[in-house]
Amino acid sequence: MWFVSLIVPLKTSRFNVVRVIDRAIKNVALQCGSSFLLALFPSVIKMYETSHWFREGEPSVYDNAIDWFSNPAVPFQSYFDSAKVLMRVYFFIVPYIISALLVSVALLIPLSLPATIHHGQRPQRIAGSIIRRTFAFPSFLTRVGLPHRVSMGELLGIVAFLILNVGTMFVRVRRSLPRGSRKITFLVDEDDDASREPIDPFSWQACEVWAKTLGVIAILNLGWYLLLPIGKKSVLLEAVGVSWERAVKYHRWVGYYTVLIIVIHSIQYLFIWIHGDGNPSYDLEGEMIQQNMVPWYCSRNDCDEAQARQLRVNIYGFLTLLFIGIMTVFSTPWIRRNKFEWFYYTHHLFIFVFLFICLHYKGAIIYLIPGIAVYAVDKLMALVSYLRTAPAKTRMLSSTVVEISFEIRHDVTYEAGDYIFLNVPEVSFLEWHPFSLTSAPSVDGNKVFFHLKDSGSWTKKVIEAAAKKDDGTLHVRLDGFYGANDVHNQLQNKHGAVLIGGGIGITPMISLALEMCQTNTMPVTLFWVVRTIEEFGIFSSEFAEAQLRYKHFEVKVWITLSMPESGNNDGCLLKSEVLELNNFDRVEYILRSVTPLKQVDKLEQKPSRSRVFRMNEPGIQGAFNAMVMCFSMVLALIAFAFTTKTFQHEKYSSVVQDKVSLVELCMVCSFVIIWIGLVIVIVRPLVDYYVQKFKATGENIDATVSFLEMTEHQSKCSSYENEEEEIEDGGAKTEHEILQSMIIGNVGLRPNFAIEFDSIAQKVLKVNALAKTDSTVEIGVLACGPAQMVKSINSICNVPSTSRSWLERDQQVFFSFTEEDWEW
């Protein structure tokens, strides 16, 4: 689809050729190159490499590949004594290196051409609506780790993953069964001719083939699908355009699925040993169970090296299963949300999991190298930030909500809708929690702030710690910025935007709404559902000021009165008293109640200047990060190749495979850690210095461009305001009247989103008709809040709109819904 985005924006301008080439290079390099190689190629080639199609024939494709990789001219050929190992290096490691390089190059190319709305694309809009439509899981399934909701796009992704994953299992079994029992380990026929006969698909020998296949698939999943994409700044996420918060959700899905595979793999081998124990065809001595499961068997019996090695391999497998079992138990939703430190500590057992996997299976390191290299860069470079604390300003907005603010340097950037991770050492040294930013970069400049609400033991302690500070400062650690992943740009490409939040879930919507109002002219509507009057008072003044500033911004608030107010335990009595009043008196009662809070909010507090954002401080940010990960994978590969060549020497011929695997893993990790140390101490400071120097020379140009853009934006805003005045004359003028208009008729009630969306559609259609644009209108919808509210919105959006009451003549409106997913 990249070439479509090149053709549409062609206009008569002397900069068009440069801009089109710019967009072409970026899209080709990033989308076609990186996404394919990084997300698809290794998985597809693994399925093909392990299949019978690759191995059968005279000569087979496998034979030709081995001949090619036996050529001394192939890089690294002299380091590996096996062409098969070298082939897998090129199939399963080199593609990730190339992809990281492409991502880095693509991110270095500035995308100067703004995204363009493509009108009249009804088929694409319908397809997009279908892909974004979500489905709810039953509550009893969500309690055991399944997601609350899953979109059609995610279901398609799951199907694609399972086709590759499960397909690899079946093609490997299909290739292995005809080779006979001579290729398995335990249930081997002693007669040589019988061992070459094809294995019966419904036999214990076939069960052993399946058991080994499941083990290989589990290792592949651990390396490619669990370790590689879980870093907050993983190059994989950069390439395929998946935000980290969604990657965490997929991480859990793949994790539970992989644990199930490992458990089945272990149970199968257990039953194989039980079946083979004493079987005259496989184990005349009747010691198969002891030989494979009793750790001290070889110390009490005569074992050859092969038997001792097999016993150690099995013990490594049992230890892997033990550590994975502990991690899985402590990753369940209840423990993760209520005992986060338990989850955090036990999840670091993954280090031992990968150690024992490498000892358990000789070829595991090839599948783990990309993930180890990328994850180490992500964690160790961020560790520099984690070791420092910085003071942040705090402001109590209510008894349960605190605002935390800080300043960033002008060369540190973030996007509307981003989030950060917060750690408060005096509350918990290890516990990190994500919070959406409330600030908008174009509106608030270098002041960044977000809000915490008392929603658990950790947040309660943070609020208590903030309330005790006389100077209004709290020492924190911050890690960011993350998220959004182009959500802001996607919303700006619509004809209008509807942002919906429940309670404190409104914070990312505030950031996005203000940013869009500042940089765009389309209608922006914000719906906020709160349970108490006190909650409404937190942001009521900010909303009123925003509506006074932006004529194309509208806020509607529903105060359900479904919870007691602070200091008033009898919520039912308060609700009945308020509902006895007429609509006007209800509104005045509420506005009188929030006035004291509003006055407190007006107190100015200068935020502290924070320098804890190491990952996003000046530099080339994503490009630099991708390049560091690229070189990290290269050095990990060099370490692996060097170690392999070293153990080819005759003097190391007696070294057991366990030690070889251990040294390989240690060398890979050592090379990566040394490289990251050099980056932190030498490379990063040099890059920052030269980037700052380069930026200084371009400040005058940037200032000129910014002035021209600002002039153009002001012109657009003026034009839009004139159009809106033609549509609706008059309106709320004072802050008090705006607050009245927000909540009038919405006290003690919940929103009827169908009616509200009808009203928005009519308004946007009128604006669209005045602008004489295309008859097809697309309105972006973003929601964050209770599951029932999100379900109600989803039932209205992402469906063809031919039956909607607000269709007029040939006009058609699409509500394109995206759910803010915070399921960690």
Automatic annotation (TrEMBL):
Spell out the GO cellular component terms annotated for this protein, sorted alphabetically and separated by semicolons: plasma membrane
A Gene Ontology MF term for this entry? oxidoreductase activity
Chief localisation class? membrane
Give its localization.
Answer: Membrane
Q: Which Gene3D superfamilies match?
A: Nucleotide-binding domain of ferredoxin-NADP reductase (FNR) module, Translation factors
Q: Which InterPro entries match?
A: FAD-bd_8, FAD-bd_FR_type, Fe3_Rdtase_TM_dom, Fe_red_NAD-bd_6, FNR_nucleotide-bd, RBOH/FRE, Riboflavin_synthase-like_b-brl
TM region(s), chain numbering: 89-113, 155-173, 254-274, 315-335, 342-359, 365-387, 623-642, 662-683
| Keyword presence, Oxidoreductase | yes
Q: Which residues form a coiled coil?
A: none
**Signal peptide as annotated in the record:** none
Q: How does it sit in the membrane?
A: Multi-pass membrane protein
Q: Which residues form the FAD-binding FR-type domain?
A: 384-488
| Listed name of the protein | Ferric-chelate reductase
Species assigned in the record: Fragilariopsis cylindrus CCMP1102
Organismal lineage: Eukaryota, Sar, Stramenopiles, Ochrophyta, Bacillariophyta
Q: Which gene encodes it?
A: FRO1
